[in-house]
Amino acid sequence: MSFKLKTILLFLAVSLIPYALTMFLVGNSFRQELYDAVTQEMHTQLRLSVERIDQHLQTLQSDMTFLAKSDIMNDVYTQDLDRRISNALLAKKTDLKMAGDFYLLTPTGIIVASSDFAVIGKTIRSKPFVEVPVYSTFSTQAIGKLAVTYPLENFKRFFSNTQQRHYYIRHADGSTALRPSLFHDSLKVSKTLKNAPDLTIVLEEQKEFAYRLLYKYELWFILLLIGGGIFIALAAYYIATHLIEPIITLSNTAKKITRTQDYTQQVHLQRDDEVGELSHAFNTMINGMDEALNEIIGLNQEIEETQREVVFTMGSIGESRSKETGNHVKRVAEYSKLLALYYGLDEEEAEMLKQASPMHDIGKIAIPDAVLNKPGRFDEEERRIMDTHALLGYDMLKHSNRTLLQAAAIVAYEHHEKYNGSGYPRGLKEEEIHIYGRITALADVFDALGSDRVYKKAWEDERIFTLFQEERGKHFDPQLIDIFFDHLTEFLTIRETFKDIHES
Fold it and tell me: Which helix (H) or strand (E) holds 105?
């Protein structure tokens, strides 16, 4: 993040964050007040409606109790009296302006009187809304029940519904009744009836309507917040830019120097403050940087060249102890790079493998001369000793943090592993063997078979080629064998270029 951006962000943090926080707190407080006001108003309206319904239900209950205790309810089996009872029930229904009917039932459920004369003598079908027992004033025995069917439509007269707000009833099982419509997003308040606990009255209002004033306020609030934020941001940008313009000049000059490597550039700031001192120090630093950088580059090149020479020399020492041909390590290095490039490694990695491959037999310097230079075949113990050179070479190099020596450690450790897992020292197979080890194995064997050694004469090329075809997928990576034969001419050219003097 640039210094300019950091400075602007600092100004914004100092100015914009307190502004936004204050606006948020004020806005949130006002919003909460509106929320509370809307909800409180809905609760008040619902409470009044529920109280009226409960009062109506209480009146209904009281009227039924009064009727049940009246003298007219005695001797209900007299024909004239049941007609009079029915007329009284009809009068009460009319008085209450109620949908539904009153019934006087026998203990067995037969209707003996009703505000609906047509059902007298029948059995009531629906469950009554309210039932009151009727007792004889003579025998004090129950002679029947006074019941009423009370459709919930009776509540509609207590509901002041509009398109944006309505009441409805929710039953104890969660089902609803008298709900005119469904709102997409709404506010709800509810209250249970005291005189009908299974019924809950719900007042529902569309949020868009309920919070219409709030939404209008929020729109202006957001516009004001954005406007204030833009003003603060522009002010912060203007102030920050003018404050740090000299720093930006220094930064741009430094970037230009880095891009062009031209260390003759200077920063000219006529200031008497700390920024002026900084520009003077910057110019002084630049004056000496080119010389120091060139010196560092030269030292690095010298170190890298010395490192390569040491690696090559150590590889040559290992070969000379075993009386190998003088140019063996050079040829193996060239073969390795060629194989690496055709395998797909980039130029830099292929060159590193070329520099590391001479160290493949460095472990031989720890092998006794009696074993290392023995003419003829090794016995079992001598072979065991000789095979330790791979691990010895790895142990010599593994502790280095240098990329080149790390590559050399891999080569020393794995150049005797075989593709089918029959090699040593770890019996790795296929992709378990690092590509450096697979490449060096092929390069080393090709050169070893084509050169005189203390224990053998050089092989003819056709014999080598036949062996390579036979060991494809066994000793050697099949892909590397294919690369070898596809570019055989180049490998033979390298061998000819770096052949040993006694072979000429």
Answer: strand 102-105
Which single residue is written with the structure tokens 């590193």?
A: 352
Residue 321 has a pLDDT of: 45
In the predicted model, what is the mean pLDDT of residues 8-16?
Answer: 68
All structural domains of the chain, each given as residue ranges with its CATH number in brackets, are: 302-503 (1.10.3210.10)
Q: What is the pTM of this model?
A: 0.43
User: Which two tokens mark 107?
Assistant: 């203990």
CA angle (104, 109, 112) in 5-degree steps: 35
Decide which of 353 and 296 is more confident: 353
Please list, in sequence order, all residues whose beta carbon lies within 8 angstroms of the beta carbon of residue 117, skipping any fewer than 6 positions away: 86, 90
> What is the H or E stretch that residue 220 is in?
helix 212-260
Tokens standing for residue 430: 């296929």
DSSP string, 233-278: HHHHHHHHHHHHHHHHHHHHHHHHHHHH--TT-------SSHHHHH
**pLDDT score of 11:** 64
Structure-block tokens of residue 334? 């060239």
Amino acid at 149: T
Letter for the amino acid at 378? F
DSSP secondary structure code for residue 422 in this structure:
-
Out of 93, 337, 354, 364, which one is annotated catalytic? 364
221 and 23 in contact (C-beta within 8 Å)?
yes
The sign of the dihedral angle between the CA atoms of 326, 331, 333, 334 is: positive
Residue 95 one-letter amino acid = D
Contact (Cβ atoms closer than 8 angstroms) between residue 7 and residue 240: yes
Q: 364 catalytic, yes or no?
A: yes
38: nearest Cα among 181, 206, 169, 217:
206
At 61 the three-state DSSP class reads helix
Helix, strand, or coil (residue 204): strand
Within a 10 A sphere around the Cβ of 51, how many other Cβ atoms?
14
